[in-house]
Design brief:
Blueprint lengths: L1 E5 L5 H7 L3 E5 H5 L5 H12 L4 E6 L15 H17 L4 E4 L2 H4 L7 H21 L3 E4 L13 H11 L4 E6 H6 L5 H5 L4 E6 L16 H9 L5 E4 L6 H14 L3
Parallel strand pairs: 1-2, 1-8, 2-3, 3-4, 4-5, 5-6, 6-7, 7-8
Length: about 260
């Protein structure tokens, strides 16, 4: 497995010093798909100048760029996704995470099956761009306190299978799994479709190693799924520069 942290670009050199394999940046803050190339180029240069790369991105769509509902702007969505994937490729990146609850939450009274169909259509369109640039878009299930559709790994797997494209896969996030009381066996069931992982101590959503939380079941499920991909800390830190050392040591201890 490879380990990274969801963090701003200014932290990339510290993560490299600690021994992380990559950083996970934000699409909206780093790839800035609706800004011109002149604003992107300095970000690109700084990221490519580090000894580790921005191999993954979260924070995909802004809340006003809707995928579900009666006000979906398909052309804007397509332009946005194409630019994000093209710029991600230029940064030697591999993964874009589709969580973006604001884009997909279903309004009261709106047909749920229609909403699922709209998400599937969006992901099919996104796959066209992702596959053209060698990027995988990982569907992130989000717990009920954040989102009212695609809330479990099982839900994410069902959507990925529905779209059935090589550029669309599934993410497992321990925080959301824990909040939904989802069985770890669902990670194993998704093995062939699992492309990315987020981790946090799930009670406080803090960094691994901030307390005595036991991650054994989570890492056992990843091992049973033969997962050898990226694991990103998506969590809070008290003292970032120090805590990322603790987090990396804690995660690696479960690989022994």
């Amino acid at each position: 497995m490879k380990f990274g942290v969801c963090a701003p670009l200014e932290k990339i050199d510290r993560l490299a010093e600690v021994g992380y394999d990559y950083i996970e940046l934000g699409v909206q803050s780093a790839l800035i798909p609706e800004k011109d190339e002149a604003k992107f180029q300095p970000i690109q240069a700084e990221a490519l100048g580090s000894s580790i790369k921005a191999e993954a991105y979260a924070g995909f769509l802004p809340g006003d760029l809707r995928v579900v509902g009666d006000e979906v702007d398909l052309q804007r969505l397509s332009n946005y996704v194409e630019t994000a994937c093209r710029r991600a490729q230029s940064m030697d990146s591999k993964i874009i995470v589709y969580g973006s609850s604001g884009s997909r939450n279903v309004d009261d009274g709106y047909d749920f099956d229609r909403a699922l169909g709209q998400i599937a259509d969006f992901l099919s369109m996104s796959a066209d761009h992702a596959e053209a640039y060698g990027i995988v878009i990982a569907i992130e299930p989000l717990c009920a306190r954040e989102c009212n559709i695609i809330q479990t790994v099982a839900d994410g797997l069902a959507m990925a299978k529905r779209v059935n494209r090589s550029g669309i896969r599934v993410l497992a996030d321990l925080y959301h799994i824990w909040q939904e009381s989802e069985p770890m066996s669902n990670i194993v069931d998704a093995a062939e479709w699992l492309a990315h992982v987020h981790i946090a101590e799930p009670v406080k959503r803090s960094y691994p190693g901030n307390d005595d939380f036991d991650f054994s079941d989570f890492f056992s499920a990843l091992k049973s799924a033969s997962y050898k991909g990226r694991v990103s800390c998506e969590c809070g830190f008290d003292d970032f520069d120090q805590d990322v050392e603790t987090a990396l040591h804690t995660m690696k201890s479960y690989l022994k």
